[in-house]
Fold this sequence. Notes:
Elements: H1 2-7, E1 20-26, H2 27-37, H3 43-51, E2 55-65, H4 68-83, E3 86-92, E4 94-97, E5 103-106, H5 110-120, E6 126-130, H6 137-144, E7 149-154, H7 165-170, E8 173-176, H8 177-184
Amino acid sequence: MDHRAAAGNRNFSAAPSSERLGVFVDGPNLYAATRALGFDIDYQKLIDFFRVQGRLVRIFYYTAVLGEAEYSALRPLVDWLDYNGYTVVTKPAKEYFDESGRRRIKNSMQVELAIDMLAMAGRLDHAILLSGDGDFRALVEAVQRRGVRVTVISTYRPGPGFIADELRRQADLYLELVDLAPVIRQRPGPREETMPAVAAGSCS
Length: 204
């Protein structure tokens, strides 16, 4: 699959405008990546970006929440996304203690995202995954076998751990988040009234 790795940062806008697009946003993973890169995403700009790339069938946003207090902090973002074209999928995060007694939080949305992408595959020409989680490699392969082209958007710039090498190699196209930042980032200064004043990954 060397041709996939070589695809590198081809201009995303080269995709045919008639393509049916499905976008799948791993909220906590994307937030961790953008935080490491030092910018916040403007979610209006993000959905507008995909709308001009093809025929956007649906854009999903996945996040887990730990409890009522945290959900209250995340509520402005969830509500804004719900009212502005996103399909938001949430579930309670799980707390547990590891062998050393340290408190851990499991907030993965892998199962929910995988079910939705597979269910949507028959209606899509192109699936776009905003995550660097290597556990999605098998999902990407399964969707490709159904004739769907898959783009992965993440980053390797802050160091290892954001984009898994196996996921990047499996994708038909990999896009570096840094290269998209000028188009989708929030500008410094007061936030626009249409945007939530809460970080996208409060549950991470």
